[in-house]
Every structure is written in structure tokens, then in C-alpha cells.
Write a structure and sequence with these properties.
3-stranded antiparallel beta sheet, alpha+beta, two-stranded antiparallel sheet, Enolase-like, domain 1, elongated, 20% strand, 7 helices
Length: 231
């Protein structure tokens, strides 16, 4: 008498997605954005969404494959249109596609990556119907008001900042700037050397330096100091 084989349950892409939705229904906002004078809000960051969803995608056999459809550049603002294919790993023909757009603002070359992150974050949140604690948009009781072209442009700029502020890099603090000046003095450099270094990196003032690039600036100043000693 043969051994009775255990029947393997075969799920389609929608059943797998439903399994994920049965395990999670909420994601906590993990980042605070401050604009000074007491203004600011909290948001759900890209990394928090990825950390939550990645193990569940692996567990239930779903791959999300992104593909950029179009990129539009306006000054330091990048708009990225992305399509995402949600694939059943056991049957790649079983899939569906979602599309999303994201904006990224950056003075260097990170705008596209930021826009991509925004698009992916929102497509996951909306596809899985994850609650974030945000107030429903339809709860706002606002009457339509005619606005001038200038007011409309200004409002668009404000909306852009508010919606994608979680992608703006943290700048160095006043203490960090003092440390840079102390380093300048220890290397016997001039203020003009610091200004030159800041401009070489694409910034107008040291206060614009992103926190993540602080060590890079320190190394650039040390290199300048070494060059002066060698000369």
C-alpha cells in the first residue's frame, strides 16, 4: 500500500495577497518632519514599509518587479512614473500590474531614487490597504475657491513640499558647522578654502550640507590641508 501524498495547496496571486492582508492591516508612522515654528507632521518612511512587507512577500511567494515608465525633470525636482508587476513565483504568468508616480527633490543626483521610493511606498500601502493613521481626505470640508495663477503655483509648491518632505535630507546642525570651522583652523586653512569646498560640492552655504555627506566634507578639507602642506 503506497504512502498517501499530502495535497499541496496551490494559491493564485490574489489569494496570496489576501493572505498577506490577513496578517497586517496597519503600519505606524516612523518619521517626523519639522519645518520650524512648531510646524511639522509624521509620515511612513520607505524603509518602514519595506521592512514590514519584505518577509511576507517571501513567505507567501510574491515578487514585486518595478519598471520605470517615464522620468520628468524640472530643475531639482524629478517625477518618476513606475509600474510594478506583482508575480506569483510558482506561476509567473499569474500576475497583475499597479502603477504609481513619485516626486523627488535633490540638489545632486538622488531625485530619481527618491521619486522611485515614494512611488513604491504608495503602491504597497494602497494595494494592501494598509492603515497609517492619516485623516481621511474626504473628511476635509473645503469649498472650491477660485485662485490666481500665482496663488495656484505657490500652492503647488507648498503641496509638493508637504507631500514629499519625508524624502528631504537632514542638514548639518550649527554644531556640525562649528566643527568644520575648528577643523579648518587645525588644518591652517582659510575661510575661502571652506567656501570653495562647499561650492565644489554643489552648495551655496555650509548650512545646506546634508548630514549624510558631513564626513565627505571633512575628508575634502583634510585633502586641501594636505595639499597646502605639500606645496
Amino acid at each position: 500500500m503506497g504512502v498517501k501524498k499530502k495535497k499541496v495547496e496551490v494559491l493564485n496571486i490574489h489569494q496570496r495577497l489576501n493572505r498577506i492582508m490577513s496578517e497586517i492591516d496597519y503600519i505606524k508612522k516612523d518619521k517626523s518632519i519639522n519645518f520650524g515654528k512648531g510646524g511639522g507632521f509624521t509620515v511612513v518612511g520607505h524603509d518602514a514599509v519595506t521592512k514590514l512587507i519584505h518577509p511576507l512577500l517571501v513567505k507567501h511567494g510574491i515578487n514585486i518587479i518595478p519598471s520605470i515608465k517615464e522620468i520628468k525633470q524640472e530643475g531639482n525636482r524629478s517625477r518618476v512614473d513606475v509600474s510594478f508587476i506583482w508575480v506569483n513565483i510558482d506561476n509567473p504568468d499569474d500576475h497583475f500590474i499597479t502603477e504609481a508616480s513619485g516626486y523627488g527633490i535633490d540638489q545632486q543626483d538622488k531625485g530619481i531614487g527618491k521619486g522611485w521610493s515614494v512611488a513604491q511606498r504608495y503602491t504597497v500601502l494602497k494595494t494592501l490597504h494598509l492603515e497609517t493613521g492619516d485623516k481621511d481626505i474626504e473628511d476635509d470640508d473645503i469649498d472650491h475657491v477660485e485662485v490666481t495663477r500665482e496663488e495656484n503655483l505657490r500652492q503647488k509648491e507648498e503641496d509638493m513640499v508637504n507631500e514629499f518632505a519625508d524624502e528631504v535630507e537632514e542638514k548639518i546642525s550649527g554644531e556640525d558647522q562649528k566643527d568644520l570651522m575648528s577643523l579648518m583652523e587645525s588644518l591652517e586653512l582659510k575661510v575661502s578654502d571652506v567656501i570653495e569646498t562647499v561650492k565644489e560640492k554643489g552648495y551655496k552655504h555650509s548650512s545646506e550640507i546634508p548630514k549624510a555627506r558631513l564626513n565627505e566634507f571633512r575628508d575634502a578639507l583634510k585633502a586641501k590641508g594636505a595639499a597646502h602642506v605639500a606645496s
